[in-house]
């Protein structure tokens, strides 16, 4: 897999400020928002996010004029990281690359539920993120299928839905979620 630019990468680059100090504040706000959304859901306080980032509320609004802008930017930034991970993992053995990416994807799904629900699928960015995710992860499944280590009677959409269904379930802890995901992925793997 080459370092093909994904549509979401262009969105992330276009939104991120170019000045170093402004970019630092922007990144701090995204990190703080991720944390706050994971803890408090879509209703996390913007004032709390600014405080966590170590900036004033005016800096938050300069970067993200609306709450939706903040949701979209967090979502796009995280999907962009998943796309980069797919490229980085592509040199591994096919099954290892696929499962490593799906484990990252499952962790992303668990922590991003509030953001995804707030965007409710109507955002143009949501569609670009979905297209980018499929363009990044799909080849990992296809490569595993060509290597004979993954079932060929499924497509990437089936796999994403399976993992999304697993991550939508409440678990005692991350270890239990990881075990259940591993059990499900055993059903995807073929025996050679």
UniProtKB/TrEMBL annotation:
Which keywords does UniProt give here? DNA-binding, Transcription, Transcription regulation
Q: Which InterPro entries does the protein's record reference?
A: Homeodomain-like_sf, HTH-type_TetR-like_transc_reg, HTH_TetR, Tet_transcr_reg_TetR-rel_C_sf, TetR_SbtR-like_C
Q: Which Pfam families match?
A: TetR_C_43 (PF21597), TetR_N (PF00440)
Q: Is-annotated flag, keyword Metal-binding?
A: no
Q: Which Gene3D superfamilies match?
A: Tetracycline Repressor, domain 2
Annotation: DNA-binding region: 45-64
Per the record's keyword annotation, is Cytoplasm included, yes or no? no
Residue ranges annotated for the HTH tetR-type domain, each copy included = 23-82
GO molecular-function terms, A-Z:
DNA-binding transcription factor activity; transcription cis-regulatory region binding
Name under which the protein is recorded: TetR family transcriptional regulator
Organism, by scientific name, is Streptomyces corchorusii
């Amino acid at each position: 897999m080459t370092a093909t630019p994904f549509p979401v990468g262009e969105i992330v680059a276009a939104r991120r400020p170019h000045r170093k100090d402004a970019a630092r504040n922007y990144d701090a706000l995204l990190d703080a928002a991720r944390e706050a959304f994971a803890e408090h859901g879509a209703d996390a306080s913007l004032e709390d996010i600014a405080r966590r980032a170590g900036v004033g509320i005016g800096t938050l609004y300069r970067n993200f004029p609306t709450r939706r802008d903040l949701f979209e930017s967090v979502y796009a930034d995280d999907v962009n990281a998943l796309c980069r991970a797919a490229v980085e993992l592509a040199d591994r053995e096919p099954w290892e690359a696929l499962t490593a990416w799906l484990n990252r994807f499952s962790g992303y799904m668990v922590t991003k539920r509030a953001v995804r629900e707030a965007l409710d699928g109507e955002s143009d960015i949501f569609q670009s993120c979905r297209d980018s995710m499929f363009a990044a992860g799909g080849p990992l499944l296809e490569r595993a299928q060509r290597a004979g280590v993954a079932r060929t009677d499924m497509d990437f959409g089936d796999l994403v839905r399976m993992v999304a269904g697993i991550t939508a379930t409440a678990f005692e802890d991350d270890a239990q979620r990881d075990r259940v995901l591993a059990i499900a992925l055993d059903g995807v793997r073929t025996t050679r």
